[in-house]
From TrEMBL:
Binding of NAD(+), residues: D30, K35, T86, T121, E158, K269, R334
Record's keyword annotation contains Ion transport: no
Chain's role: Catalyzes the conversion of UDP-glucose into UDP-glucuronate, one of the precursors of teichuronic acid.
The protein's Enzyme Commission number: 1.1.1.22
Pathway recorded for this protein: Nucleotide-sugar biosynthesis; UDP-alpha-D-glucuronate biosynthesis; UDP-alpha-D-glucuronate from UDP-alpha-D-glucose: step 1/1
InterPro entries: 6-PGluconate_DH-like_C_sf, NAD(P)-bd_dom_sf, UDP-Glc/GDP-Man, UDP-Glc/GDP-Man_DH_C, UDP-Glc/GDP-Man_DH_C_sf, UDP-Glc/GDP-Man_DH_dimer, UDP-Glc/GDP-Man_DH_N, UDPglc_DH_bac
Family assignment from sequence similarity: Belongs to the UDP-glucose/GDP-mannose dehydrogenase family.
Catalytic activity: UDP-alpha-D-glucose + 2 NAD(+) + H2O = UDP-alpha-D-glucuronate + 2 NADH + 3 H(+)
Keyword Oxidoreductase part of the UniProt annotation: yes
Active site: C266
Protein's recorded name: UDP-glucose 6-dehydrogenase
Gene Ontology MF: a single term: UDP-glucose 6-dehydrogenase activity
Species assigned in the record: Saccharicrinis carchari
Amino acid sequence: MKISIVGTGYVGLVSGTCFADVGITVTCVDVNEKKINALKKGIIPIYEPGLETMVHNNIEKGRLLFTTSLKEAIEQSEVVFIAVGTPPDEDGSADLKYVLDVARQIGKHMDHYMVIVTKSTVPIGTAKKVKAAITDELEKRGVELDFDVASNPEFLKEGNAIQDFLKPDRIVVGTESEKAQKMMSRLYKPFLLNGHPIIFMDIPSAEMTKYAANAMLATKISFINDMANLCEIVGADISSVRDGIGSDSRIGNKFIYAGAGYGGSCFPKDVKAVIKTAADYGYKLRVLQAVEDVNDAQKHVLVSKIKEHFGSNLSQMTFALWGLSFKPKTDDMREAPALVIIDELIKMGASIKAYDPVAMDEAKRILGDKIFYGDDPYDVLIDADALVVITEWPEFRIPNFKVIDKLVKNKVIFDGRNIYDPNEMVENGFSYYSIGRKARHPMK
Ligand SMILES: NC(=O)c1ccc[n+]([C@@H]2O[C@H](COP(=O)([O-])OP(=O)(O)OC[C@H]3O[C@@H](n4cnc5c(N)ncnc54)[C@H](O)[C@@H]3O)[C@@H](O)[C@H]2O)c1
Ligand SMILES: O=c1ccn([C@@H]2O[C@H](COP(=O)(O)OP(=O)(O)O[C@H]3O[C@H](CO)[C@@H](O)[C@H](O)[C@H]3O)[C@@H](O)[C@H]2O)c(=O)[nH]1
């Protein structure tokens, strides 16, 4: 079977590589020539555990190809996935210009029956627009060709993308054609050996499923963060509360970790987009508006705690930051809480020394010389006034507290991901601020 994937970002590259890995011949297309040239040599543009080896293996086997020519890629392809970006427009809606541009290119070049699948996260009605754009181009060429469109939203998480793709909880496909349904069943068969289902539905429902899934997950996070803030006020501990509610199987223990707010390229953008879609239809998604408001506020909670401890004038002070990426196991800093925290601390006169296991290059690209970059977690502690943990990378979980104590001027830690035990902190003589638990201070 031969397929092509248009857009070689996180989703396109991971999907393409995983399809190639099960024996399908995949051509990945991108307009970014630099990216494609690097990929041809096996150099991957993103940090994603396990991806590089898999890309190498499949290039070697001749099953994974890269090109900048969409025309060349779709030749003999039975299925073409559109996996380009859908960034937020100024009003929060998903910008479809890349998706529709690809659709038009497909219409200009296709010469046989294909299923054109939107894998990008797109608003309800997009598959229809894709179909119209292709039909329009075919008509301009005076060509009559049969083709189908389908919607196949992607649910992978950065940092665990390969496992998520190879062993999905479910695959959702929206299609209105039996022929396309058969093709999609055949394509995904190798990934369904673990018994998880492929769920077929109509196209608008598939498009909506993606937004509903991300909106639900974002809601869980804002809910727990709201509860965490109340826990602090009333003297409860959110970690115990999480254990208490998470063991109820109707609630579940996943995605209810309080923290410094959700970031990344998906939740913030998709929550905004679905709110905008609803508004366009004259409906107000009140729950999701609150989810977004709570998250915006949550990104400032750590700085409030810093102010509570040191006051509002932070000039002459230096903060050591552990973690810059929006979550562990990725170098992605899109919408990362770290960016909000850094911005606010700098505005209050503070200097920042930061360390992240993989996001240092990305941070330099975004922040330039606004902050100092350390070589390892302990390097940034030298002459710092306090330690602030923003991302829960495994290597920060059991640090050497004696070394922290020796290097940091004040014995205080601000933990934005609740990775330390408050009792252990005070026993080690630290003041400890975390999320959803009262600040703790050592006995005088
Ligand atoms: N990142 C994730 O974890 C994730 C997970 C599920 C769904 N999604 C969704 O998938 C889509 C892609 O996300 P991403 O993170 O992979 O984006 P990305 O920005 O990493 O990659 C998009 C790629 O598309 C390329 N591109 C743009 N226009 C093109 C064109 N006309 N022809 C060929 N290539 C073109 C860009 O050069 C870029 O390399 C988005 O809609 C996103 O919401 C993302
Ligand atoms: O209990 C939790 C779980 C997550 N987060 C935060 O939520 C954000 C998103 O995390 P995660 O969902 O793991 O990462 P993404 O790679 O953004 O994946 C989400 O967005 C993708 C793009 O749409 C979807 O495909 C995935 O299913 C969906 O989980 C991060 O900032 C996390 O720190 C929390 O604060 N608490």
